[in-house]
Amino acid sequence: QDPTAAHYMFQDDPFLMPRNTANSRLLSLAKESGRNAAKYIIKEFPQYFDKITAEPNIPCLMPEIITPQIEGVSEAALKERIHLRKVKASVDLFDQLLQAGTPVSLETTNSLLDLLCFYGDAQEEQDEQKRDLEEPEENNAEQRSPRRPFQKSLNSSGFIWREDCNAERIFKIMPERNAHSYCTMIRGMVKHGASAKAYDMYVELLNERHKADVHTFNTLITAVPYLKEKFIERWELVKEFLIHMAQQEVQPNVLTFNAVLKTLRRCGGVGRGVSLSVIKEMKALDIEPSLATYEHLLSIFYRAVELHPSTIITEVLEEVEKRSFTPQDPDDGCTVIFFGSFKNLTNFFQCCDLKDIKLAYRLNKAMEKGDNWKFLDMDRLNAYWSKFFSLLCMMEQIDVVMKWYKEMTPSLFYPSPRNLLDLLQALDAANHLEVIPSVWKADIKQLGFNRRQDLMEELLSLMSREQHPKETQLAFAQCAEDIKASHEQSGRDQAPLEWSGSALGHVVVLFSRAGRTQDAWTMMEHFQQINRIPSDQVMDEFLTCAKQTNCPDEAIELVKLAASFGLPSTPKLKSRAEQEFELSEEQK
């Protein structure tokens, strides 16, 4: 892997190659937005994409045909529309079949329920939103329907289960219902925020002497926090569902145990007390945990703001190190990631609080094993490496830190201003400040952070704190000149940076030590412009520089500047100027 190359996602167009985290996020989101826009256009205007002109025609490379081919009112046409996921068209055709007195088979009706319970009445919701946008605002306010008393929908479409929605209406008029019908309704109700109705449907399923499948039980277990308020009541209901599974001879899977642990995350101390027994039960049934299993477990034990030392993270890591994971649970790669930024990077914060670099190395080795790295998207990958690098700066030798830094940027992550501050502090602790000019030129400027006040203040403070060899001082002065240019230039959409008194003083000191008297005096004049007072050290450094370069005129101007400020050090400066410079009568 080339450490100087950007992520493969950005190598199509070198001109657009991002320079920092914000740009990489913007470009990756723009690409995904473009793909979504293309899918929307194809979905909304399929008539423009039905001509196949490729020769030879290779079906697997052609766009999927999403326009219904079967005309008329028939069950075959209904099946086709269900297969094409045409929600509104499927419901309309089903109603037409009922009006014509044509019976619809149980299998087809269940397929329609599957479609409705997965997508909801999404098309109707979109139509309502379009109508709301077209109507005048005052009429829209009068006709807006009241807010429904269901929990927040668990899906991303925004649809919330409504009374007598199409799924409920079709379910009620079904002449025959089987276990599949009930299970589909239960899962749809939980998905779209009607957990209480789902539990009532489950009770009805039991009364009809049907058996639920494992997916329905998994869904019901995840809905427990919305059904019970007290922690102990939630755990009792989870146990009740598990007992029902055993009674109905339903074999649990990894999603079942993940659902239990996910619910225990919202059970406080009760969850911490029983979560380990859940893991033991998984092992007894010879069920391999997924990444989400371990993440739920860590979240249960490290949920508090103040993390207490625990061996759980070490024990979990011992298990993770042995395996290369494959996705088994949606939570493995969507909302919570063991390696990435799951809920504030719980495990990595614990590594930092424990200052355990060995634990972090083990975690990193586990992340790089097999295909585990594929669980991290761009944002999580950047967050992971950023936290890892901060820990390296805190705990490792500077040679090791710089080795990791050169290998990680920009191929693995773009350093944040916080990372660069950590790097500067590590260089300071190791007394390797001579590296600062290369960090400034190759990273801070390249990443677009040359207008960050906090970063520039820290950089100038470190460079001006002590005297260094001449070659280093010249490099420091060049950095100071770049910072001066950053303050003076202002783009069309950028306000000019304001000088602080400390930053001005640091720049004067750096120019003075490099023998650049005229540049130093130019910066000294800025003190009057921004109504700031230079420190005694700044004026002493400038006077020393003026002596070394034999510039008595600047020395006299410095004394005048000090006098205009009414500084107590004015007599001392005057005395030094008279003793150290050969002044003419006029100058005296």
From TrEMBL:
Instruction: Identify the InterPro entries for this entry.
Output: PPR_rpt (IPR002885), PTCD3 (IPR037387), Rib_mS39_PPR (IPR055063), TPR-like_helical_dom_sf (IPR011990)
The main place the protein resides is mitochondrion
Q: Does the UniProt entry include the keyword Chloroplast?
A: no
Return the annotated region ranges for Disordered: 126-151
Answer yes or no on keyword DNA-binding.
no
Going by the UniProt record, its keywords in alphabetical order are: Mitochondrion, Repeat, Ribonucleoprotein, Ribosomal protein, RNA-binding, rRNA-binding, Transit peptide, Translation regulation
Q: Name one GO molecular function term.
A: rRNA binding
Annotated GO biological processes are:
mitochondrial translation; regulation of translation
Q: Name one Pfam family in it.
A: Rib_mS39_PPR
Q: Tell me the domain of life.
A: Eukaryota
Under the heading Gene3D superfamilies, the entry gives: Tetratricopeptide repeat domain (1.25.40.10)
User: What are its GO cellular component terms?
Assistant: mitochondrion; ribonucleoprotein complex; ribosome
| Subcellular localization, as worded in the UniProt entry | Mitochondrion
The family line of this record is: Belongs to the mitochondrion-specific ribosomal protein mS39 family.
Q: What is this protein called?
A: Small ribosomal subunit protein mS39
Name the source organism: Nothocercus nigrocapillus
